Amino acid sequence: MFSELAPGSPFFLPHGTKIYNKLMDYMRHQYRSRGYSEVITPNLCDIDLWKVSGHYKNYKDNLYLLKNQDGERVESQGLKPMNCPCHCLIFKN
Hints:
alpha+beta, 4 helices
């Protein structure tokens, strides 16, 4: 299900959670069988990461950025649009 109070964030109900977990099990099996290692990156990062990676320039109208109590966009942090910027930080490390 979806809610306007959590834009872009799905809620997985019991049956959806079963399907999600089956898909994740399948993906993890595929990773292991192909020699990949799984990593987990933060969902919320500083907006400077999106600017350096080019995602801000290309997707700024569709990024989920934090808002202050008055509902104004606060362009300091936002939800990651995709994994590659965070993976670049892992590679850099």
